[in-house]
Design a protein that fits this description.
Blueprint: E1 9-13, E2 16-23, E3 28-33, H1 44-52, E4 55-60, H2 78-93, E5 97-103, H3 104-115, E6 120-128, H4 140-146, H5 151-154, H6 157-170, H7 180-191, H8 194-205, H9 210-217, E7 225-231, H10 239-248, E8 252-257, H11 269-282
Helix pairs in contact: 1-11, 2-3, 3-9, 4-8, 6-7, 7-8
């Protein structure tokens, strides 16, 4: 990762130290939520682009998928992550914000806007889980391993690195976006310490698509503007998932883009779509 990527910061909310990155000190707030196996590193290209266009950008990291720390008994499910995110937004963002969710982060975003939409002005969902579209086949072996008593022998640095390489390669058009710095950052966040590995395992054990089945079906009640940005060649969460979300969202714009699942790592298309949609709406276009 290049020198322009901002350093992580931490804020203590509830019983957790939430890790996050921030691009830009002023402007309209926008919050970016990552999914598995990513952390805030997913958003570097998007954060730079948005901050250059007048946004104040935050990218918090989920407990179990990055450098956020918390107690062992914390709720690692998507609903628990949504609760922790709400506390983060109240403490750090404070203003009404645009909420962006990718992959499992999109599942968290759906829980937030379906249950407590008050602080969310607009919502952007991109190549995210919805209804029962997850866990995908690539993750199921990890979930099975997480339930074994011998999980420490399975989630070795070599095994986890191999999983990261394969998952990212399958989810990108250009594998050159997979740098050693990126892999090392992801690896250390998932399994670099005994605590990180324990949280990652608890996250995997807590994966339950009943939470998105409930939240996705309630999206008809969200009255804020929504943008769906979907990569045409996504094989983890195909376009059909986005189209199903589109059918239940009352105020949804649809923007297909070139790319695969991890498109924010290699393309500015998402940031450009958000800028055009958000600023166009505010200018009455």
């Amino acid at each position: 990762m290049d020198n322009l990527i901002p350093q992580r910061q931490w804020v203590t909310v509830d019983r957790c130290r939430v890790a996050f990155r921030q691009w830009g000190a002023e402007g309209r707030p926008i919050v970016l939520l990552h999914g598995i196996p990513m952390n805030s590193a997913l958003w570097h290209r998007v954060g730079l682009r948005l901050s250059a266009h007048g946004y104040r950008v935050y990218a918090p990291e989920m407990l179990g998928l990055g450098y956020t720390d918390g107690p062992d008994d914390y709720d690692h499910s998507l609903r628990g992550q949504a609760g922790l995110f709400r506390l983060f937004a109240s403490a750090v963002v404070q203003d009404e914000y645009v909420l962006v969710g990718h992959d499992l982060g999109g599942g968290v975003a759906q829980i937030v806007v379906s249950e407590t939409p008050q602080s969310v002005e607009k919502c952007v969902l991109t190549d995210c889980v919805a209804f029962d579209s997850w866990p995908v086949d690539a993750i199921k072996p990890l979930i099975a391993a997480a339930h074994r008593e011998t999980y420490r022998e399975i989630f070795t640095p070599e095994h986890t690195r191999n999983f990261l390489q394969k998952a990212l390669s399958f989810g990108l058009l250009d594998a050159s976006a997979i740098t050693e710095e990126l892999i090392e950052d992801l690896l250390q966040g998932l399994t670099g310490t005994a605590d990180h590995l324990a949280h990652f395992v608890r996250f995997l054990r807590a994966m339950d698509n009943k939470q998105t089945q409930d939240a996705s079906s309630k999206l008809t009640g969200f009255q804020g503007e929504t943008l769906l940005v979907w990569a045409k060649a996504d094989q983890f969460q195909p376009v059909s998932v986005g189209e199903r979300l589109r059918s239940v969202l009352p105020h949804a714009a649809w923007t297909p883009i070139e790319g695969r699942h991890f498109h924010p790592l290699e393309s500015s298309a998402l940031a450009d779509a958000i800028i055009q949609w958000d600023k166009g709406a505010r200018n009455g276009q």
